[in-house]
Each structure stands twice: as C-alpha cells, then as structure tokens.
Description:
Nucleotidyltransferase, domain 5; Alpha-Beta Plaits; 22 helices; DHBP synthase
Amino acid sequence: MENRLLRIYIKGVVQGVGFRPFVYQIAVKNKLAGWVRNTSSGVEIVVEGPQQALDCFINDLSKKAPPLSNIEKLSIIDYDPYGYVEFKIRPSEAQEHEYQLISPDIATCGLCQEEIFSPANRRYRYPFTNCTNCGPRFTIIEDIPYDRPTTTMRSFHMCPQCQNEYNDPMDRRFHAQPNACALCGPSLQLMDASGENVQCDDVLSTTAGLLREGNIVAIKGLGGFLLACDATSNEAVGILRERKRRPYKPLAIMVSSMNNVQKYCIVSDKEEKLLASNQCPIVLTKKKTNTDISPIVAPNLKYLGIMLPYTPLHHVLLNEVAFPLVMTSGNLSEEPIAKDNDEALRRLNRIADYFLVHNRDIYSRYDDSVAMVELDKVQIVRRARGFAPYPIHLPFQCKQILACGPELKNTFCLTKDNYAFVSQHIGDMENLETLEHFESTIELYKKLFRINPEIVAYDMHPDYLATKYALTLKEKNNAMLFVPVQHHHAHIVSCIVENGIQETVIGVSLDGTGYGSDGRIWGGEFLITDYKDFKRFGHFEYIPMPGGAAAIKRPYRMTIGYLVTLLGEEALSDNLRFLDTIDDQELTLIERQLVQGINSPLTSSCGRLFDAVAALIGIRGVVEYEAQAAIELEMIAAEEEEGGYSFSIDDRDGMYIIKLKQLFRDILEDVQNGIPRSIISARFHSTIVEMIVKMCMLGKRDEHINRVALSGGVFQNRYLLRKTVMALQQTGFEVITHSKVPTNDGGISLGQAVIANIVAEGEGIGR
C-alpha cells in the first residue's frame, strides 16, 4: 500500500499536558514514522505511513487526547512521502511573534497522590511530586515554548532516574517540565518569624505539630504564601484575624478529603465535582451547624469557603494534622499575596509564627480561585488558580487591546485573534504594591501571548489607579487609541460576550459604585445594551451619600440619607434603634450635609440601598469589609416569606425612575411593629426582584427585546439571583448570567476590551 505524508499543525492547550508523548504513542501504535515538536504557536507533527494507519492516527488524535489538553484548531496538509523510518520527538522550535495557550496550574492527579502516600515509592511524602497531568504550569513559566529552561525549574538538574522518566515517551513524566524528586528537586525549609532555621528531622511533621499547638504558619504554595492555622480553634483563628487586620471577612478552609467536606458542609453533586476538579477552587458551600469549625471562620454567614488539597505539600500536611486548616492569602488586608521567601518574611513576620518555605521560585502571583454553584450552574467569584490564563473565547476576531479593568477586584484583559486573556485576580487597586503587581503581570501576559496593544480601554472614573495607569500610557504613545468605557456598560457586555451573544439585550447592572456618564455615582441601572453602545432607560432614584466614601464604610449614613431625603428629617425622630449608636454631633453633621448638599454626592446604587436597609433594621451600621452589611442582610432572609413592599416607577420622558419613598415607609412600619428582621429582609429582597421584573417588562414593551443579562456585584447575592432568574423566566424572559468571569468587578475588563474593539472598528483602526 502506498504511503502518504501528513503535516499537522495543532493550536490550543497542547504543551505541558503530555501531548507530545501522546502523539508519539499513537504514532508507534499505528506503526507510523515522522516526528513531533513544540513550537511557539502550538504543536507540529509530521507523520508518514499507509492511509488506513493515518486515518486511525487522526481519529486517536482527536478523540483520545490527554485530559488536560484542549485542541482548538487542527490543520492537515498533504505532502509527498519523505521516507521516514521511525517516529521521533524533536527539540522545540521558537518562532518570533507566535504564541500558544498556556495551561493554568493543575491540582495533584490521582496517580501522584498514590505515590506520595505509598511508603515504597521513591516519591513518598515528596511535596513537589507532579507529572504531565498535574502540577505547576503558569506560575513557573517565564516564556514560551514551554520547556524547562524557560521555567523557574531550570536551576534543578534532574537525577538519573528523573531524567530517564523525562526522556521516556512512554512514561507519564515525559517532558514534565517540573519533574523532580527528593534527590534533585526543590526542598522545604522551616523558619521562625526572625528568619532563623528551625532544626528538625521532618519539616512537614514538625510543621503539623506547630499547627496543632495553635501557631500560625505561612506556607509557600503554587502562586504565593497562604496563612494557615487550626480552623477548629477560636484562639488561633482570632489571633490570625487580629494580626491580619481582617476582623470579619470570611476565611477559607482546607480539608483532607471529600468525606471531611461532607462532615462540615451540605454539598450537591455539582459542588463535589467542582471541589474535586483539576481547578480545585475554593467553593462556597452551605455549612452545617454544630460542627467543630470555629464560628469566627465565617461569622454571620450561611456559607463556608472550603477546598481540597491541590498540591502534594497540602496533601501530606493535611494528612499529618488530621484537622481542617484555615488557608487564607498571605498578605495584610488589601495587599497582594506574598510570593518570594524574603518578601514573605518581610511582610508577614508580624502575622506568622513560622514560615514553611521552599526554593522553587514563583514567577507569577496566583491567588486561589473562588466559585459557587447556584441555579445548578458554576459561577466564578474570583478567577485565578486553575482558570487563568486560559482565555475567554470571543465570537469574533479582536484587535490587540489592553483593557485595564476597575478599581476593586481588579483584573486586566488582553485580546488577540478570538481570545480574551483575562488575568488572574489582581486585587483592589488601592496601594502601590497592588499597582506594581498589576503592571508586572501585564508585561508577563504581553510577553507570553506576543501581544503589543494598539488600543487601551479604561474605566471612566478619573481617580481609579487603573485609569491613571492607562492615561500614563497615553502620555507615552499618542499613536494608540484610548477608549474610556462606562462601568455598567462593561458589566453587561462582559456577561453577554462570555455567553457568545452578539445581539442587543436588556441589561440589569446592580452594584455598589460605578462612575456614570452624567458624573454621578451609578449602581442601580437598567440598560438597552449591545457591544457598541448602551441606552440607560431606567435606574433607582438618586439619593445623597452624606460624607461620600464614608457612607460606604458606615451604612447608617446611607440610612439617614434615604430617610431624610424621602421622608423628611422628622423620620429620624421616631424610635429607631440604629440611631442609638450614632453620636449626636455626627448625626447633626450628617443632617447638615444632607440639607446643604455638602460632600453628599448623588447615587443610584443598589448596593447602597441594601446597606441602608441592613443598618435600618439593626443588622450592621459599620462594615469591616466590602458589602458586609448587604451580605448579612441576605443571610437572614426567611426563605418561606412571600410578602413584599410598595414602590412606584416614574416615567420621565422615557427614563423610568424607581421611587423608594413607600418602600422605606413600609419598612419603618414593620420595624416599629416588631416584625422579625428575617421577614423584613425577605420582603425587601422580593421587592427588589419585583422592581427588576417590572423594569424589564417596560424595556421589553418599548424596545421589543426579550433577553435579559444580569451583572454586577449585587448578583453575588445568591438569594436575590435565584429569585430574580426564576421570576424573569416565569414572565417569559430569556435570562443570561455569568459563569466564566465574575459577575462582580472581576469581569469588567472583559467588557471593556470588547467595547473598545467595536469603537476601534468605527475609528478605522486596522488589525
């Protein structure tokens, strides 16, 4: 039978996932000759043999690819036979300007777990065990092609046994770039808070003992340091909170097995699958009552952020301690996670009692991802480890764009071809350390994906650090196109583009703060939206924020703002218990600010409305973390309550304004009648749902649109999201929600990039 030769080019996630040994194995199985190699753009294969064998090879290539790979494009070109006599794996080839998709870091696979718990195995308890199916990827890559010399593993020279595994195409560690063992690979070191070595025979056993004694240990992981302590100890958790300056914000915990997850939480099948997935994120699950988890791990919350071990180090340590550990980001409140040993000792020595470090460098900081399952759908709350830098696929070709993202929960986005590379979670852009993390990570993504932005998108708010960064680029390069993007427009576009929708939708964007095109603070917005533009057809009525940003930290200020504005100063004379906590002098100042309009910017924010109601009914007047009052209001809502409150909608020449006077009058009446807060919360939530439905019906009537997209941080409220989606669907709407990027501001950069691409097309900017 006459031979044929095929040249095959593959793009996608096909490096660092065992793809070349897979190709080698199916070529040998089908008795084909030729070669395979990595390139800067993907994998290139030349394969020669009879037609039937080639057909089997192509079928295997498509249907039996390694589980962590993702073939996005496969092209085949026929050539005359060359006369190859064997199949080889060739050295990688660097190609200028070409790029490839990069795998995120992947949780320890089952085979590696078996090895680290098998006393006869040479990798028994070795904390850096990995193979082509698991382990670090993105956090150790400095450049492409993905080969050991371009990773932080280059300084570790493999021992003969590891080298044999690495060279053997039939071994699952063939070309596993982080491959190592205790003889030749990274090693652990235990230090005290002063940086002195702790002498011990077994570092992990000693660390487990320190945790059992109530110490706080900073542990170097995949993308940075985590702070660990005994999650069952009120004392240990309390000390961690005090030192970390995080008095209330919930902490994540790590448990050793799914059986222990079920011990502490009520988990659905989909939640179990997510917890045990390759991404292994923190999953927000409903916590059980009467467990030994300290109540101050997640105070006043129904949900617990829980995760399984995702590195061998975690597996061995959790097995040693035999109790759940708090595992929270190694930082002071609002700072980026520490990644280097010296940096961690400098920044965390007043928090941690001990430091468990290692000598494998981390190239890129990488927080744990956070996710939840709601309405039987996985929704990302914080996108980082396990997900980034895998791109969002766009339903069109996109120019090379940098979208700088928002102020809070920042991510940036770089686009090229039909990919949107949304960065890992950067954090709140409120300090120099986070800005530096932002800038260095942008440069890394530009290098890895060979992106040279010609367009820069940024938030309209002039004081955001991300906006200021964009404007400094403008000073350096006037040839680039700079596109300011309205915050809530970006929210809705991020939602529809991740769902592959290109048509106009009704957008409901509810959050705490976004700079409006009228210069006011938006946050309760109803939009007619497509990629190119938006029309605001409705919003919550404007209310003054006495003290500006101070009203965000002190929700009782917003409560006073609503009551005085809507019902007059006499509303404050009623017997309202929340006023008892406010100093008379401050109350007088707030009233003066409202009456005279001093430092009281107007807002339509739905987030501030939630805050105000929470303070009014005595849940929380001062917050220690973002949206705390609103979250605690959600937590107490009575599921069985079906009542609601009154409100009205004014039509001002086609702009629909949700009026809130009657809402507050009704809530005040319930408060004064002693109605339980759980009932008031449920009625308030139901009223917000009714407002959304009625506004969407007005949008549908006027614009003949039946598809609604929901976005903004308020929709992290699971109770509200669930009731809203169900109510809209019952009314006949098609409802679009987030899953791939967060509904909070972590998804903003994606929307910014898409909007900027459309603007650039209108400006005639070439590809």
